[in-house]
Every structure is written in C-alpha cells, then in structure tokens.
C-alpha cells in the first residue's frame, strides 16, 4: 500500500434498518494504479474500527486521466447481518459462500444433448426421388 494514496469517504449514512454504515469512497492515487479491493477493505476497516470481513467495497470506477477512483462501501455491524442482507454474488466474491461452477464434463454433455435436439431439421426423407426436409413432411 503506497504512502501517496488517500481514501476519503463522503455521503456517509448510518442505515439502522440494515445494520450497516454506507458511504461513497473516493480514492486519490496519483501516479499509480488503483488499490486492490482487499487493500481498500483493510484501510476502511482500520478507519471504522472493525474487521475487514465486515467491509464490502464495490463499483469502483477510475476517472478519466487516472489518479482518482470512486466507488461504494458498506460496513456491517456484525457478520450475521452481512450474511443476511448482502446479495449472494457479493458473498461469493469475498469467498463466504461457494459459487456453483458445473464440472466441464457435465457442460459438454449438456451441449451435446442440445445439439442432438437441434439437429432434427438435418434428417431428410426421400419422396418421389427428391430429398426433402423431415420438418416439411411430419409423419
């Protein structure tokens, strides 16, 4: 984490219904690339005196020309509330929930099966010496 990186928060709001604090985060990083989300979470956790597990940072966009990025952060009061209110895809990103990735063999079998179902128009019938599409003349 570089010394010349400054993190500011604005539009701070304490959301008691969802047991969290939410804010817009501005990161000033002149002359270097954007901080990783892990570093952002650690710095925000230190600022708000909590553990990095309860900080969710997302939606960061770098401004044109670089040097400044803006995103959003949520700091939950407890892990239970975070698991209850955070969407599943964000829990997968922080590795709290295992994502579902089907095995490659099952994906291949599914595509083969779909290919067999879609190939019905390739079967042809012969009528009066001409090859015709089976879809044109159903049994």
TrEMBL record:
Keywords annotated in UniProt: Ribonucleoprotein, Ribosomal protein
GO molecular function: structural constituent of ribosome
Residue span of region Disordered: 101-131
PANTHER family: 40S RIBOSOMAL PROTEIN S24
Official protein name in the record: 40S ribosomal protein S24
Ribonucleoprotein listed as a keyword: yes
HAMAP family: Ribosomal_eS24 (MF_00545)
Biased composition (Basic and acidic residues): 105-130
GO BP terms, alphabetized: translation
Protein family according to the UniProt entry: Belongs to the eukaryotic ribosomal protein eS24 family.
Record GO cellular component, one term: ribosome
């Amino acid at each position: 984490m570089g010394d010349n990186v400054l993190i500011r928060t604005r539009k701070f709001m304490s959301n008691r219904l969802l047991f969290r604090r939410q804010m817009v985060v501005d990161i000033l990083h002149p002359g270097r690339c954007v901080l990783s989300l892990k570093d952002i979470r650690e710095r925000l956790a230190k600022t708000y005196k909590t553990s990095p597990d309860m900080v969710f940072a997302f939606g960061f966009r770098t401004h044109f020309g670089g040097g400044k990025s803006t995103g959003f952060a949520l700091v939950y009061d407890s892990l239970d509330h975070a698991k209850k209110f955070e969407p599943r895809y964000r829990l997968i990103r922080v590795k709290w929930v295992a994502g579902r990735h089907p095995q490659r063999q099952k994906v291949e079998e599914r595509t083969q099966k779909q290919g067999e179902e879609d190939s019905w128009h390739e079967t042809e019938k012969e009528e009066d010496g001409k090859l015709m599409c089976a879809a044109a003349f159903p049994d």
